[in-house]
Amino acid sequence: MELVFTLDAAGDAITMTIAQDSIGARESMSDREQKFVALGYLQEAWAEARLEGVDGDCLAQACLFAALTEFVTTYGEEATANLANGLSDRIRNGEFSIERARQ
């Protein structure tokens, strides 16, 4: 399986999907299901790196660098900058916050 990120031409939206191998192709998953599967893979890789002693902040910075580099390579600086410009409002609106159960 291959994780694929798609940025629209204006740089306003990201679509995250998984391209499946043609051998043993699985049933089609909805876009939402694919995003959950992709997130699961990323969380597993993250946890493995943490077990190896990699700091979470270093992981986050490396992931952002890798993602932005890929977007610039694929879509160019302007589309990527447009995407980044919209992130501050989305962060403030809580789109990236994960609520944790309080004990």
Low-confidence stretches: none
Strand content: 5-15%
Structural class: mainly alpha
Give, in spatial order, the strands making up the sheet with the most strands: 1-2
Largest sheet composition: 2 strands, antiparallel
Quick one: overall form? globular
Number of domains: 1
Q: Total number of helical segments?
A: 3
Query: Could you give the order of the helices and strands?
Result: EEHHH
The level of helicity is 55-70%
Number of strands: 2
Rounded to the nearest angstrom, the radius of gyration is 16 Å
Give the N-terminus to C-terminus distance in angstroms: 38 Å
Return the average pLDDT rounded to an integer.
80
In short:
This protein is mainly alpha-helical. It has helices at 31-51, 56-75, 77-92; strands at residues 2-7, 14-19. Strands 1-2 form a two-stranded antiparallel ribbon.
Q: Which key features would you list for this structure?
A:
mainly alpha, single chain, 103 residues, globular, two-stranded antiparallel sheet
How would you describe the overall organization of this protein?
It is a single chain. With 103 residues, this protein is mostly helical. It is built from three helices and two strands. The chain has helices at 31-51, 56-75, 77-92; strands spanning 2-7, 14-19. The protein has a two-stranded antiparallel sheet with strand order 1-2.
